[in-house]
């Protein structure tokens, strides 16, 4: 089978294991803190709702600005590894400030220094990984990227469960130290990793994608829908069922499916085209959101998780590779642009549900509408491509 051959080829690539472990441990470190940030700002520092939103919004906006700016110039650098190493050190400095914050000003400074440089890490890691695999195993570049992204996702969801247990044992300080440990592991493994910068011995032709602003906007809408779900589903679940730990179990179930679906999605995208697979994933997301709005039964929330896991696998796996292939000669910028799209979606997702009063399943009508509009845009692109292909065949005939 092709998948077995590809896995065997992947595991013997020099540096593949280091990259895989790097993203797994970084995912754990990120996942440990992710669901605790708002609670920490509220309970430990005593910030108001408006102040908490301001801390998140300012830090994310700075993150976006740094990500796209450095992504634009990073391809001129022969050695990309220095950027995520520097970013990780800055994040650690910010965490020390954040740990000792006592008011709004110190919390804002600490979180901004922690979050702002982190946008360099994911974008540059995947830009560096694409360069590495294209020079060592060009025929499995896309699958290698997907497996790396799946490794981060599995680590992130493992971090969610680990963070909850650390909090019970060592409170917020323990959670923050766990996040710091993730950055330390990242730096150590980056220093051990030998970045490939020379030209490949055998060049593999990788088919690029034409630039499409419509597709980028459609992906932004899909990411925005996912950001709304990520922020507000936990609140809806708490409101409906009264047990905050349920959301951790629902999120953890996602990790079970993600590695499988990312792998399948990658092969299907190679066979049928990325845009078609993204369209199918969007259909699964729309079905999930509509089920959220119409049901309050807990088993249903678990039952639809495989559908949503497929969508997330496509959004963070296939779509990432699709955007990168729009900029084959500028891998650092392509990866950073994808991260920038995700960040922009999160920023928008913080505010859109404020137009619906209270915390109710009706919130999910907003991501449903976003996904429906995105599917319409992708459908138009696919229809035009099909019509153009038919016209070319007719002219050739």
From TrEMBL:
Pfam families: MFS_1. It is a multi-pass membrane protein. The keyword Membrane applies. The chain crosses the membrane at residues 12-32, 52-73, 85-101, 107-129, 150-170, 176-193, 213-237, 249-270, 277-294, 300-323, 335-356, 362-383. It comes from the Bacteria. It is found in: Cell membrane. Keywords: Cell membrane, Membrane, Sugar transport, Transmembrane, Transmembrane helix, Transport. SUPFAM superfamilies: MFS general substrate transporter. InterPro entries: MFS, MFS_trans_sf. This is MFS transporter. It comes from Paenibacillus sepulcri. The lineage of its organism: Bacteria, Bacillati, Bacillota, Bacilli, Bacillales.
């Amino acid at each position: 089978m092709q998948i077995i051959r590809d896995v065997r080829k992947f595991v013997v690539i020099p540096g593949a294991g280091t990259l895989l472990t790097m993203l797994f441990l970084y995912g754990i470190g990120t996942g440990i803190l992710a669901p605790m940030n708002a609670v920490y700002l509220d309970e430990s520092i005593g910030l108001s709702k408006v102040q908490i939103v301001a801390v998140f919004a300012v830090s994310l906006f700075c993150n976006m600005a740094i990500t796209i700016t450095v992504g634009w110039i990073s391809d001129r650098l022969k050695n990309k590894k220095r950027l995520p190493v520097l970013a990780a050190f800055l994040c650690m400095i910010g965490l020390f400030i954040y740990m000792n914050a006592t008011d709004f000003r110190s919390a804002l400074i600490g979180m901004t220094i922690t979050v702002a440089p982190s946008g360099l890490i994911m974008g540059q890691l995947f830009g560096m990984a694409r360069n590495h695999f294209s020079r060592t195993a060009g025929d499995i570049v896309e699958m290698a990227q997907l497996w790396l992204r799946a490794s981060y996702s599995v680590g992130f969801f493992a971090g969610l469960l680990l963070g909850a247990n650390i909090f019970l044992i060592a409170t917020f300080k323990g959670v923050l130290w766990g996040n710091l440990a993730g950055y330390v592991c990242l730096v150590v493994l980056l220093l051990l990793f030998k970045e490939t910068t020379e030209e490949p011995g055998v060049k593999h032709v990788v088919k690029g994608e034409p630039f499409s602003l419509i597709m980028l906007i459609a992906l932004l809408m899909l990411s925005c829908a996912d950001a709304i779900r990520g922020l507000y589903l936990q609140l809806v679940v708490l409101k409906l069922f009264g047990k905050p730990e349920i959301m951790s179990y629902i999120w953890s179930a996602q990790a079970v499916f993600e590695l499988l679906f990312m792998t399948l999605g990658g092969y299907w995208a190679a066979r049928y085209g990325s845009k078609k697979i993204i369209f199918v994933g969007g259909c699964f997301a729309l079905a999930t959101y509509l089920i959220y709005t119409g049901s309050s039964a807990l088993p249903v929330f678990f039952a639809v998780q495989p559908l949503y896991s497929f969508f997330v696998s496509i959004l963070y796996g296939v779509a990432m590779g699709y955007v990168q292939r729009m900029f084959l000669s500028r891998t650092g910028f392509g990866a950073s642009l994808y991260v920038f799209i995700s960040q922009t979606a999160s920023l928008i997702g913080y505010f859109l549900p404020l137009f619906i009063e209270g915390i109710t399943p009706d919130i999910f009508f907003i991501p449903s509408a976003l996904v429906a509009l995105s599917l319409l845009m992708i459908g138009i692109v696919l229809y035009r491509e099909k019509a153009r292909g038919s016209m070319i065949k007719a002219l050739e005939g």
